[in-house]
Design a protein that fits this description.
By secondary structure, the chain is α+β, with helices and mostly antiparallel strands. It is about 25% helix and about 30% strand. The chain has a single domain, classed as OB fold (Dihydrolipoamide Acetyltransferase, E2P) (Beta Barrel), CATH 2.40.50. The chain is built from 2 helices and 5 strands, in the order αβαββββ. The longest helix is centred in the first third of the chain and has 14 residues. The radius of gyration is 26 Å and the shape is elongated.
Length: about 120
């Protein structure tokens, strides 16, 4: 019995080392934002297409614009402060135009707002 005790202690320490560390609680996603300049704007026909990615983007943008505003959807080409050029589809409810400085709010989806 005395020879079995050290073996059990060794086995217990090996098994304890194999357990995964406790996972961290999920973090709330923070809203990140940057600034940019609108390079171009064009109207988007909100029709369902055969391109699944385009349909998904338009549906997401339409959902964001469904807050009681029937403004048509627009594609904004924006150059951010890092020099990256991005495209954002949303309603032009803020009356944005080419050359305007904007804040790019990045949450689960990107949105342009006036500074």
């Amino acid at each position: 019995m005395t020879r079995l005790l050290p073996l059990l202690a060794l086995l217990g320490s090996v098994l304890a080392a194999c357990t995964p560390p406790p996972s961290a609680p999920p973090q709330a996603t923070a809203t990140s934002a940057s600034t940019g300049t609108i390079l171009a704007i064009r109207p988007i026909a909100a029709t369902i297409t055969t391109a699944p990615m385009r349909s998904a983007l338009l549906m997401n943008a339409s959902t964001n614009a469904a807050s009681g505003n029937n403004a048509s959807m627009m594609e904004f080409i924006v150059r951010d402060v890092d020099g990256n050029t991005i495209s954002i589809v949303q309603a032009n409810d803020a009356g944005l135009s080419v050359g305007d400085r904007v804040v790019i709010q990045r949450t689960p989806s990107a949105r342009l707002v006036r500074p």
